[in-house]
Amino acid sequence: MTMRLFWIGSIVAATLCGALASGAPSSETTPSSEPAPFSQSLFSQSDARALILIETTGPKTAEELLAEGIVVVREFAGGLLAVSTSEELSRIEKMGLAYAVLDADIAGKTYYTAWLHDEETAGSAGSLVTILARDGLNAILRASPKQVDALAAGGVELAQVFLTPMRANPPTSPILPPVLLLPDPDIQEMVASVSITRINSRVQRLQNFVTRYADHDSCLAAANWIKSQFQSYGIDSVYFHEWSIQYNPNVVAVLPGAEHPDTIVIIGGHYDSITSDHANCPGADDNASGTAGVLECAQILSQHEFKYTVVFIAFCGEELGLLGSEYYATEAAARGDDIIGMVAVDMIGYVAANDQLDLDIIDNASSSWMRDRVMAVGGLYVPELSIVHGSLSGGSSDHASFWRHGYDAIMFFEDSNQYSPYIHRTTDVVGTSYINPTLAGRSVKTAVAFIADLAGLLPPATAVVGGEPAASSLVLEQNYPNPFNPETTIRFAAPARGAVVALEIYDVAGRLVVSLVKNEKIAGAREARWDGKNRDGREVPTGVYVCRLSSGKETLSRKLVLLR
Questions:
Q1: Which tens digits make up the pLDDT trace of 215-247?
Q2: What's the chain's average pLDDT?
Q3: What digits encode the pLDDT tens for the residues 206-216?
Q4: Is 395:157 a contact under the CB 8 Å cutoff?
Q5: pLDDT at 45
Q6: Which helix (H) or strand (E) holds 101?
Q7: Is the pLDDT of residue 9 over 60?
Q8: CA 20 to 30 Å from 509, out of 137, 285, 439, 485?
Q9: Are residues 515 and 486 in the same domain?
Q10: What range defines the domain where residue 253 resides?
């Protein structure tokens, strides 16, 4: 069966071509927004489960379906892929949602989403596998692993559809301090230390393994080299994440957070590669460039301390359907890992001759705050790089595995439309496919700044929050969150030589509410938290309060808003 889908508002219009898996006759239909009852005859067995595509009517549709016991597995083309019995389809109908049946019985079958590049590729794919649905060049395929290998080698970007429930992730954003108005000199120094020479050298070294096909010995050799690189940066926790007896492991390096180690920021990129000749998969742009970028980030960031834990990952099995990252994200969700954001770096070394040098950010609705923040951080620290909003659907990268498990994630990508035409070929080599180290270097600089910002860079003991002040100056940053309830954090600093300071909260009438720091001598940056209580331990009411930092004749103040 082939189904061509067009999403128009909340209406699914479908043209069915060929026969359904159950043997139902071919037909052409244009369903209205009121879905027709599902025919029991579509099921070959009474307990069969079908693969279906459900319309979405808002950001909470997935959450509502999952609450009803519907196994929603992933997003696709503005809708939701799910598996369902006939009884569950009746529940979907009662919810007023339109749906299309893609395969009446999923038993023993494997599915993938794909980006088909162009109509010629789509035609070739259709002769090799079963295309169940299309939305433009995005498609849902039924295919065997052998067929998928052939598709991937032909340049098709694939993601396996795992038939287990996704985690709903309604659009929200974590409570983070605002992006600074002026660059932090420590982050500036980190960005300036990014070396294009080192990045180029790593790309060439990974290409020199000749092949990094996921089950090849040379790919394992590359994994060992990546592991040794992480260890050489002084990172103590470096290990292989074994997820398959057939394919090579993910390589993981963990930089523990100094204040909140259970809160995690991840940056990763896949190191495996693919062509039709498994013994020759150079993969320079796809994705030695991203792996080299992750290693450069690790080398620089590992020399600093952060509030939150930073995890660096080189994934394997991405080219075969995002396999390594899916297993990692599955286990992270099962552990209850608090991952506030994940960045996938995939292909950052090619710019077409007629294209502008810029970095595309791929996001979804729940991760839009990450896109906005990386644009702000990039503009602050790497203003020479244009950062734009890109888009991918059927073809994707390791960030999509984290989406499926309810985590926010974005992808750094060279271009959504004019990316390297040499990927998945033996010509994906330095000088042909990896041709723009400037883009790679600027992308990695942006990644360094963004991870440092997101993970909460802790200044050195003698540093000052927000910059290097004059010898006699204080620094008082705006509290965050603001407005707040019930607690807020206040960052402040004294000169490196030290000063006796007081940090106090007043109401708008000028009356002292509580003293957070009482005439204490400090040097450098500090944090204080106010729990919305006065000096007697009683909660104060909703209102505007004033935070005052003073030392001798110097006084700084900020307004705080408490909302009960």
A1: 999 999 999 999 999 999 989 899 999 999 999
A2: 85
A3: 999 999 999 99
A4: yes
A5: 54
A6: strand 99-103
A7: no
A8: 485
A9: yes
A10: 185-455
CA angle (118 as vertex; 113, 121 as ends), nearest 5 = 70
Looking at the fold, whether 254 and 150 belong to one and the same domain comes out as no
- Same structural domain, 425 and 555: no
Mean pLDDT of 35-63: 69
3-state DSSP assignment of residue 14: strand
Say which amino acid occupies 53: L
In a domain, 94, yes or no: yes
Same structural domain, 436 and 357: yes
Q: How far is CA 61 from CA 54, 79, 169, 316, 394, in A?
A: 9, 9, 11, 32, 20
Give every CB contact of residue 30 below 8 A, 6+ residues apart in sequence. 13, 14, 15
The amino acid sitting at 47 is D
Pair (222, 309) in one structural domain: yes
Side chain identity at residue 77, one-letter code: A
Residues 6+ apart with CB under 8 A from 116: 122, 125, 134, 137, 138, 139, 156, 394
CA triple 84-90-92, angle to 5 deg: 70
Is residue 22 over pLDDT 70? no
Give the residue from 161, 177, 194 where a domain finishes: 161
pLDDT of residue 396: 80
